């Protein structure tokens, strides 16, 4: 089986950013994405999704390391100053590497 190394970029942020994040990621070079509604918290507080403005999402993008870096840099520069967000990377191995 052919295996291909890629990066998983995960962005956890406010749901209000979903459409902009997806458009930005696709414009930068991501071939696709997955979005989940999530809840969570930290020492700074909790986002329990009890009302619309309190909803959080998790955006997952599997792509090349270069695209992952570009998307992360854009998200940090554009959205981090005014919105709650967390980002992390993971090395992943995929089949059908041309999809990513």
Q: Topology of this structure?
A:
Blueprint (H helix, E strand, L loop, with lengths): L3 E11 L3 H11 L5 E5 L1 E3 L2 E3 L8 E8 L1 H14 L6 E10 L6
Antiparallel strand pairs: 1-5, 1-6, 2-5, 3-4
Mean pLDDT: 91
Instruction: Supply the CATH class.
Output: Alpha Beta
Coarse morphology: globular
Q: What class do helices, strands and sheet pairing give? A: alpha+beta
| CATH topology name | Alpha-Beta Plaits
What helical percentage do the residues reach? 25-40%
Q: How many individual β-strands?
A: 6
- How do the helices and strands follow one another from N- to C-terminus? EHEEEEHE
Radius of gyration: 14 Å
> Low-confidence spans: pLDDT under 50, at least 5 residues?
none
Report the sheet with the most strands, covering strand number, pairing sense and barrel closure.
4 strands, antiparallel
Strand order across the largest sheet: 2-5-1-6
């Amino acid at each position: 089986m052919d295996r291909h190394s890629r990066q998983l970029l995960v962005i956890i942020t406010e749901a209000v950013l979903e459409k902009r994040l997806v458009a930005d990621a696709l414009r930068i070079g991501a071939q696709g994405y997955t979005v989940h509604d999530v809840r969570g918290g930290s020492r700074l507080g909790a986002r329990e999704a009890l009302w619309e403005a309190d909803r959080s999402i998790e955006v997952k993008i599997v792509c090349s390391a270069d695209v992952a870096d570009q998307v992360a840099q854009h998200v940090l520069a554009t959205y981090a100053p005014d919105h709650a967000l967390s980002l992390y990377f993971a090395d992943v191995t995929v089949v059908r590497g041309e999809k990513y």
